[in-house]
Amino acid sequence: MIIINPKDQSEKEIYRLLTSTIIPRPIALVTTQSTDGVINGAPFSYFNIVSAKPPMISISVQRKENGTMKDTAKNIYETQEFVVHIADDDNIEQFNAAAANLPSGESELAFANMTPAQSEIVSVPGVQEAKVRMECKLVKGIPLGGSNDETPACDLFIGEVVFVHIDEKIYDHSHIKIREFNPICRLAGSNYATIGNIFFMERPR
């Protein structure tokens, strides 16, 4: 076995190691809104489930090299709300386009040709192009990372899912029809994957 001490590696080397071994990762397009009313949209693969009771999810937003928060993190802290959308085969190119580094006053939704969709509970709009979108209220935001009193390297957000929108074409009696949904996952670098072989395995009791 190869032995690696993270303390002996550069940040880039550790990033490559983590993103190429912790795979596949679900992709969330997160929409937020600034206090000036600008709708921000950005994709994240540092994203997963936290709890089912109440339903909570997590998103980690990495900071810029100088420690400045990205618009997504800044908006979540200020408004306490965000909307999470799941990437699928029909919207992945638009979601990827939303990763463009635009000025804070410009909306990635317009840049990526996505259509705002009014939310039911939160004030932040979602996007119509997603088959699944989850309205979330912030439970906790935690600055993490960095070293030696440096500025944090990321912000971890825990959000409670307060409302869910699902395309009727992929929903059947409380179950998601995975082939109709066809979610896309993130691998390493510029590599992505679709759902391949699906198999059943009973868990021990």
Automatic annotation (TrEMBL):
Its cofactor is FMN. Its EC number is 1.5.1.-. Coiled coil: none annotated. Pfam families: Flavin_Reduct. Residues 20-173 form the Flavin reductase like domain. GO terms for molecular function: oxidoreductase activity. Transmembrane segments: none annotated. InterPro entries: Flavin_Rdtase-like_dom (IPR002563), Split_barrel_FMN-bd (IPR012349). Gene3D superfamilies: Electron Transport, Fmn-binding Protein, Chain A. Keywords: Flavoprotein, FMN, Oxidoreductase. SMART domains: Flavin_Reduct. The keyword Flavoprotein applies. Belongs to the flavoredoxin family. This is Flavin reductase family protein. It comes from Ureibacillus suwonensis.
